[in-house]
Design goal:
The structure is a homodimer of 567-residue chains. By secondary structure, the first copy, chain A, is an alpha+beta fold. Chain A has 20 helices and eleven strands. The first copy, chain A, has a domain of 122 residues. Chains A, B: Belongs to the acyl-CoA dehydrogenase family.
Chain lengths: 567, 567
Amino acid sequence: MPYRAPTSEYTFLFDAVVGFDQLAATDRFAEATPDLVTAILGEAGRLCDDVMAPLQRSGDLQPAHLENGVLRSSPGFPEGWSAIAEGGWVGMNAGTDHGGMGLPLTLATAVNEMMAGACLSLQLAPLMSQGQIDALEAHASDQIKEIYLPKLISGEWSGTMNLTEPQAGSDVGALRSKAEDNGDGTYAISGQKIFISWGDNDFAENIVHLVLARLPDAAPGSKGISLFVVPKFLPDENGNPGRANNLKVVSLEHKMGLHGSPTCVMQYDGATGWLVGEPHAGLAAMFTMMNNARLGVGGQGVGAGEGAYQHALDYALERKQGRSASGAIVDHADVRRMLMEMKADLFASRAVLLSCAHAIDMHAATGRADHAARAAFLTPIAKVFGTETGMKVSETGVQVYGGMGFIEESGAAQYYRDVRVTAIYEGTNGIQAMDLVGRKMLDGGEAAYALIDEIETLAESARSNHPNMTDRLWQANEALREATDWLVTQEDMQNRFAGALPYLRAFARVLGGYYHLRAAVADPEGPRAKLARFYMSRLLPEYQGHLAAATAGADGTFALSLDELRA
Amino acid sequence: MPYRAPTSEYTFLFDAVVGFDQLAATDRFAEATPDLVTAILGEAGRLCDDVMAPLQRSGDLQPAHLENGVLRSSPGFPEGWSAIAEGGWVGMNAGTDHGGMGLPLTLATAVNEMMAGACLSLQLAPLMSQGQIDALEAHASDQIKEIYLPKLISGEWSGTMNLTEPQAGSDVGALRSKAEDNGDGTYAISGQKIFISWGDNDFAENIVHLVLARLPDAAPGSKGISLFVVPKFLPDENGNPGRANNLKVVSLEHKMGLHGSPTCVMQYDGATGWLVGEPHAGLAAMFTMMNNARLGVGGQGVGAGEGAYQHALDYALERKQGRSASGAIVDHADVRRMLMEMKADLFASRAVLLSCAHAIDMHAATGRADHAARAAFLTPIAKVFGTETGMKVSETGVQVYGGMGFIEESGAAQYYRDVRVTAIYEGTNGIQAMDLVGRKMLDGGEAAYALIDEIETLAESARSNHPNMTDRLWQANEALREATDWLVTQEDMQNRFAGALPYLRAFARVLGGYYHLRAAVADPEGPRAKLARFYMSRLLPEYQGHLAAATAGADGTFALSLDELRA
């Protein structure tokens, strides 16, 4: 049951739903013509189908491991990385100054998601490099850029991000790693970092770590953190990997899934590093990296869900059981329901993801604040909705397989195990939701209302052709507006936080309806409209439950004492 | 982080929610006094806490395996089985004629769930025996009962059920295993069976297989299936294990979870068996076994969820992160929300489970048809709600742990992996839902309306003391009534089936509200009422989304062609 990258889905979304043509109309992305987009998607699709998808099981069955302190990646992964690097896919969104393709993030997001569906473990490696490239482009000195960016973009070197420490997870400000000035423009970095994805590999010439640490005079908390670039091998005068740095992989975690991707405990013992950006401004720089990474993780969720859907559908078409039109289980109503839910949710979450990327691109191309605000607002939604869809779809995929879904050989279980981490890393989904109702609504909800207004406008203009669907969406959107009114007037932030994730889920549900309606408008008699109707009648209505929870306030959430919780 | 069996939760549920006193008022269960119940729960709790819980990780890390065709169970499992057997827990619900305790199923369900929370893999072994004991008590000849029941009840022997074949899963009627009359009162059984839980072990003297097979003159489909008892060792004239039968374990499945429980491929090559019940009436006999097993699997879901909740709560109390009242993450609003949802859902699903068992017991004690109808109606709901709660709670448990949840050492991931199968075996959750809206509503919805009327009555009587909660419940219940009206008038069964699982979920949500309200009535100012309010305001409202999907009909579900699903 091979994986087929959903290239035509992207073409449709670009054309009919997220407005890719607006990007191509800017100077910055003028080269991103429909022909180029088609060519890129086709080329990336072949990489996914032919090179990456065959590695999916190998990564699970033969995990990355340490041999005498040396990391050995799963069989085929080095060749897979080479193919990704040689295709230019690591640097597709990077600036052309240092060898990147300079493509819109919207297109890069699509390619990343396709790669995630093919082989999530391997795809995480270029995703980490991309985040690092973003951060260095935005914050590093020209000298550092010259040394690192060309190698990272070409894939000769790979990148990691080092935030977490045992006592500092979601609360990054609690980290203790130290940086001391060596007086020669370098710093000595010491400390332990955990949960470092692809902290080492056997396919890049050099591994470049971006490490958060504290300078001696640093303030406590998140305002005293600086960012350093700390390579595994110190570049020599020609920029080639030279002497080994004082850092090592201590151990690998034994994880529930994503076995092909080594999760490292890293030890820095006075390792040589260079400051990126200003002293004590490391968290802001790291957030550049994390913002795009959050979008990337949302894409991992959707990608894994796509893989799970394709496998489940293939099984449902093949598996004969009971009496039905075709004899296959796909003709049983409950199985068909599951497949339709999977497909409708994948469409919705993918559209949110691409709309977020589109806003980021439009901001990059125009500098307009409204695009920046939309990008900031959609980022946590894209992360949560993408990863929750990935979990839900992969869980449903196991269910479609029945008993075989619990057997590892079917591959269905791997999607379910692998995708689970996406709701956790790059900021747990709870943290994302707090970001949404906190920081992202400090504007009084302006970005939220802009979307709600836009949805209302579409619902009204599409009403005559799609009365039933638009009525449902209009009602949901009005309920969302009322909940937003309630939320932005809550002075006690606990009231927002206690309903944060339900509010995010409701917003995602309504956004999904918005994009489904756009698809229906573009294809009013065809399968897009049919899928949209299914979504509006069966999935959109979930917003009601979410909004009830979103506006219930914090009192009930904290009603039980700790002893009562324990009882 | 030890597991503590939730004995006081059961005491409360028995006393205040499910009406255990009605059972004790019958002749049949007159001995089940409050003192006895307390003693039983205490004794079982100690077994769970001290003996079974320590085996949870060992089963995962050192799975059952075959050594030269001989099954070796996980370390400590043989001792665990002995403790279960010696405590009399295998036969707690079995008749006293053959050594059972004759306890109400309501109490046995509680004990089974506690054991499932302690160690799901091991608990599956006695659960299988219990199902077999039920089937033999109901259908076997006196001679078979005399030989098998005392040994099964004492735990000297263990039992399995053999239904599934590679081509016959949910469609049991497609099975091909053969039984030929040996002319001496025995039959020669031949065929391959798959997914046989605990198909062998190294702790029982004998393994008794109940096997479905076809006699030579059998009709095709499910009307031509007979049930046979096929022991691993043929009993000698004294009833002791004698000559080895012609059957073997071919292989074990490599599963996502539940590693401590071996899932066997069994081969029968003219194995000697004895007919149980009438020829060609095997499916009915097997359904006796499966009915209680479905309830048992619902309890597995709740039990695993309880284990996941306790671990997540312990972690949330210990893990310091960020700024909060205690410094621990339990004081973060989103973490508290997760824990409250877990606790509220565990209460609701446990109450449904016990109410179902209570109806079965009341039918056994009184023979009244209304109790039988209620038991039949609640069984699929208890199975689905229990297992979906187990999945949701264990998924949330992983989330509470954050990054550590994805690391196997934390134990959170094991609950998530293990519990996943409960939504599949003993009839997938989709099959359960079809049973509910199909067979279980052939009465025109009588059993459904009886519950809905009962809920309405409580909502009205409790209104003055709990106006807000009862309003919410009353509205949900009326919406459920309307959806039920719609459902029972659908002549086209596809319309019912396409909404079957959402309908079941809505019914479960409303039932959960019903039992929470009962708890609040019993404890109007205390933690029970607080938890009930949380449930009513935040979880009950999910019924709206479910009912929308339940009544959307089949047209939209089948709107896409197979090619369009694939596109």
